[in-house]
Design brief:
The complex is a heterodimer.
Chain A (H helix, E strand, L loop, with lengths): L1 E11 L2 E12 L2 E5 L6 H8 L7 E6 L2 E2 L7 H6 L1 E4 L11 H11 L5 H14 L15 H13 L5 E5 L7 H16 L4 E4 L3 H7 L2 E6 L2 E7 H6 L4 H11 L4
Parallel strand pairs in A: 3-8, 3-9, 6-7, 7-8
Antiparallel strand pairs in A: 1-2, 1-4, 4-5, 9-10
Helix pairs in contact in A: 3-4, 3-5, 5-6
Chain B lengths: L2 H7 L11 H26 L7 H37 L5 H16 L2 H15 L5 H26 L3 H9 L4 H31 L11 H12 L2 H29 L7
Helix pairs in contact in B: 3-6, 3-9, 4-6, 5-6, 6-8, 7-8, 8-10, 9-10
The chains are: A alpha/beta, B mainly alpha.
């Protein structure tokens, strides 16, 4: 999938959260990294159509995204989105969480939607948890179900917003494994993450956002081995400080 | 095992766990006995004996009053639900006069006693606008009063909706209407239904105040009967029991709803 960002600006009141972010590349597995408050989540939300940028344009496969209120639902329906936590509907079982959007948004029959949901639950090791409510699942199970829901309608692109940062370490890996598997089955994704090992080894491209600016962009091996900007050098250095 | 400890254990249960049937029944019985003993002791100090003979004589009137109370409460509940929902929506309106009107309404109604509202409404607004029928006036007053509380229940539950839930619906491509129908509405029902059911018990109890404008509901009936029989205590004991007959099942249903919709529970 070709993604092109043209001078994306985002201001919240007086605060400029994103400043002239531009990028044009084929995206398969992209990780957005950088310190907190750098604008990572904001950028992901703009790409996902959940936020309307203050300025600039976005193209997916050379098609410009129209941020008109009435156009957005159809645009969002083509994408999958996974939140940091709490994205599953509290009042629906895991299975219904996956099936409902298929029925309501994509017009799938109930029977077919439930079947597809079960298929995905099986695939993510949740085969026998389908009837449980989100609150009855562990954090890792919740995120796996959320990922299942995000890919249920075969989206063009899956966006993951720090999907493991609210999890205990033991659950983090099971979720990262699932995301890695997605990549290997050809599902394209953009992930905002603090898991540098995952960004480095499971993603092919890295975008480093710092203070609202895209300071570095490139292949993951290159960026991690030869960070050019002092900011990225410092950022990576800090992360390695407490390495085992 | 210490036998004393065993006996103590009969009266103890851990928090957040259901109590075994036998233990529950035993302790409930104990509480009932306690209440009766205190009540009976007070009566014997005052040297009062009861006779409920008047019930036979006035049975028909008591029944009429009972039915009128039920009717008043049911109609008021329906109207106050509609009005309360409108007000709750109005409080979030973009049109400022509407928002402030709803806000002022809730503040005034919640800030004044029902008895004041009944007098003012009935004798000023009711007279000026020619609302002579006491049942209609009573229903209107009660509905206006309860709607303010219902609006607050609905507003509170809307505020407690998790914003991520709405974002999740957005991210899946739900339109506004679909979000309302499939996410906001079911979650609000789950949050408000127990409280709204409880509010119905309040409507029933509050309707007793309509007796002051001579709506012949249950309380007014009892007041009239006790004025002729001079059996004040018996009348009010019966009155309290009759209200309990209505409110206790409602409380029970409210608890059921609470359990049924508590999908955040772990087990």
């Amino acid at each position: 999938m070709h993604v092109r960002l043209e001078g994306i600006d985002m201001n919240f009141g007086e605060v400029a959260v994103l400043k002239q972010v531009s990028l044009s590349d084929r995206i398969d597995k992209l990780a957005i990294i950088g310190p907190s408050g750098g604008g990572k989540t904001t950028l992901l939300r703009i790409i996902g159509g959940l936020l309307v940028p203050s300025g600039g344009r976005l193209f997916l496969d050379e098609q410009e995204v129209d941020y008109a209120e009435n156009k957005l639902p159809a645009y969002r329906a083509q994408l999958g989105y996974v939140f940091q936590q709490g994205g599953l509907f509290h009042h629906l079982s895991a299975r219904k969480n996956i099936a409902l959007p298929l029925q309501v948004v994509h017009g799938t029959s109930e029977e077919e939607a439930l079947e597809r949901a079960q298929e995905l639950l099986n695939r993510f090791g949740l085969g026998s948890e389908g009837d449980k409510m989100p609150a009855q699942l562990s954090g890792g199970q919740q995120q796996r179900a959320a990922i299942a829901r995000a890919i249920a309608a075969s989206p063009k692109l899956v966006l993951l917003d720090e999907p493991t940062s609210a999890l205990d370490p033991e659950y983090t890996n099971e979720v990262l494994d699932v995301i890695n598997d997605l990549g290997e089955t050809g599902i394209r994704f953009i992930i905002v993450t603090h898991e540098m090992g995952f960004a480095r080894h499971a993603c092919d491209k890295i975008a480093f956002l710092y203070d609202g600016m895209l300071l570095e962009y490139g292949s993951s091996s290159e960026l991690f081995e030869n960070p050019t900007s002092p900011e990225l050098q410092r950022f990576l250095g800090k992360l390695l400080e407490w390495r085992i | 095992m210490n036998p004393l400890k065993n006996i103590f254990n009969l009266f103890l249960a851990p928090k957040n766990k259901s109590v075994p049937l036998f233990k529950g029944a035993l302790n409930y019985l104990l509480v009932c006995v306690l209440i009766i003993v205190v009540f009976w002791a007070s009566l014997s100090v005052l040297n009062i004996t009861f006779s409920f003979g008047f019930v036979d004589l006035y049975g028909k009137r008591i029944l009429d009053g009972f039915i009128l109370t039920v009717q008043l409460s049911l109609v008021s509940l329906v109207i106050s639900l509609l009005l309360g929902t409108l007000v709750a929506v109005g409080q979030r309106s973009r049109i400022l006069p509407i928002r402030y009107l709803c806000d002022a309404y809730v503040k005034i109604i919640r800030g004044t006693p029902l008895i004041v509202q009944i007098y003012l409404f009935f004798y000023i607004i009711g007279t000026a606008w020619g609302i002579k029928n006491r049942f209609i006036a009573g229903v209107l007053i009660l509905s206006i009063f309860e709607a303010a509380y219902i609006a607050e229940i609905i507003r509170g539950s809307f505020l407690s909706l998790d914003k991520t839930q709405l974002e999740a619906a957005n991210s899946l491509g739900f339109t506004r209407r679909q979000t309302l129908r499939y996410v906001i509405f079911p979650q609000m029902i789950a949050r408000t239904l127990p409280a709204l059911t409880g509010q119905f018990a309040n409507v029933i109890k509050d309707s007793s105040l309509l007796s002051i404008i001579a709506v012949i509901e249950m309380t007014q009936t009892m007041r009239e009967i006790s004025a002729t029989t001079f059996q004040l205590f018996e009348s009010y004991i019966l009155l309290g029991a009759l209200y309990l007959c209505l409110t206790l099942p409602i409380t029970f249903v409210s608890h059921l709803f609470e359990k049924r919709f508590n999908y955040a529970r772990k087990t």
